[in-house]
Amino acid sequence: MKHQQPKALLRPPQSRNRQVRSGISAVRSKLRKNQLQEAAVQLHQLQQLEPSSTEVALMQSELLTKAGDHDRSCQLLKQVLNHHPGLVPALVLFADAHTAAKRYLDALDALERAHQLTPNDYAIARNLAATLARLRRMSDAADILAPVVRKSDSPADATQLAGLYDMAGKLEQSLACYDSIKQNIPDVHVLKAGALLVQGDRANALQSLEQAMKQAPHNASLRLFIAKNFADVFKPAHQVREIDEILNTSGGGKLTREDRARLGFALGLAHERTGNFAEAFSAIEEANRHAAPAAGTDDSQPQEQVALSLSDYFTKTRLAQLAPGGDPSSKPVFVTGPPRSGTTLIEQIIASHPDAGSVGELELIPALKQSLVSLQSQDVRRCAKAWFAAVPESKKELKRIVDKSISTFSHTGLAMLMFPKSSFVFLRRHPMDIYWSAYREMFGTNALTFTYKPHTLVRYIQFSEHVMSLWRQRFPDRILTVRYEDIVSDPEPNIRSIISHLGLDWNDSCLNFHASRSEVRTASMAQVRKPVYKSSVGKWQAYRSQLAPVASALSEQIAEYEKNSE
Description:
Layout: H1 18-32, H2 36-49, H3 54-66, H4 70-83, H5 88-100, H6 104-117, H7 122-134, H8 138-150, H9 155-167, H10 171-180, H11 186-198, H12 202-215, H13 220-229, H14 236-248, H15 257-274, H16 277-291, H17 300-313, H18 316-322, E1 332-336, H19 343-351, E2 356-358, H20 365-372, H21 377-389, E3 400-403, H22 412-418, E4 423-428, H23 431-439, H24 454-474, E5 479-483, H25 484-489, H26 491-501, H27 548-553, H28 555-564
Parallel strand pairs: 1-3, 1-4, 2-3, 4-5
Helix pairs in contact: 1-2, 1-3, 2-3, 3-4, 3-5, 4-5, 5-6, 6-7, 7-8, 8-9, 9-10, 10-11, 11-12, 13-15, 14-15, 15-16, 17-24, 20-21, 23-24
């Protein structure tokens, strides 16, 4: 959104009333301490003393945002900005209120205006970069953050910028950022190895890991990365002994919960590869206990309720009525399913076609949801435009663009609302293979935390089967359902079916997807660099006795899945 550039106003007009100025200082202190009730009482008194004070209005908006009344905060800030369009603190507060309400596109508008007015304000630049990253515009975020990093000596800043360049597919710039960090930080070498591995460069990734191993052989991130991606190079039996030593030495008492989780998962995977399944299960179970969020922080049930409400609302008739408000492009392809169901495999198969490409796991619809649920055509088109803004320029002219977001099956109606002509591929896999493959995996920080507790992971698998069934029944022409086991047991006819569903001509490169140089950023990035293999089917059977309670809880889903596979 373009705005006429007003004159920058870095602070609001100050009150001439000494009592009001003193009161504002006191309220600011109370807001910092989160003493909201006391701040509200004092602000009411100040408003009576000086109803037109812009400073008081800004404090009131900050209070409303902290109290969760985001809409009233935004209304108040709109009034302030009507009188002072260049008031930077008001724009920042406006962005904060929209961010708190998860209206990220509106937050972006406010921050872009603030950044235009004060391009050298690095706090605003950081905030703008974070919002662009949240909207998956990684290259734009890197461009905003780069001047900040050039003025900073912080390794954290350089690491963040390197990560943005990596996510933007700019490997050269990413590596340059990592190499610019003078301090010997083992995690940096691991992150650098990850960036190289995303591009399929195993040789240089291994060199980076060897550097990290020399500097800090006890590093937990390093050990987990090796276990997941380089078990063929670092012998599992040696890894078991070394990780046991790290966990059991006196230094192990200083490990964080997260590091204990990383080491536990690495130990479990190493035991598994040596065939010691009892020890593997014990280590993975312990790792999950360390990785699991604290009691009361699981928000999966409210998310499930939202997903079910969306599936109830978006009937075939209603979506047909709303279709004119969406983007007419048929380019988007949404590949989705539960984590570890084979979505990365299908993504890479499609992306290996010369007329298709992938943007990986955008997970953008949850960030756009608050704008989409208005159902207003202008909001829907704006969100569709935001989705395309996250697509690299090099891929925008392709016939099909794959978004492999796990959340899409919960938000299928919103994806169809944005793109009425888009295509969908749903992945299914044996419930127990999904369970075990997810339970033995440590995902990114604060990502997929429901996988770390057996009951929440079971509930998620049950929920995903139910919701995907609702969408499949409603839109059998739009949604192709693919079974992971069918792909690995008989690849060619099933891959041909996928390519046909997307309206693409057949190309033999789809059978050689593992040779593709396309980026892979998920937990499956090592596996999809190999041809189709069957060893992952039924892997849970090695833990049949330990997983008996889980199999019992999923008995209905297992029976239905196995019945349909006959």
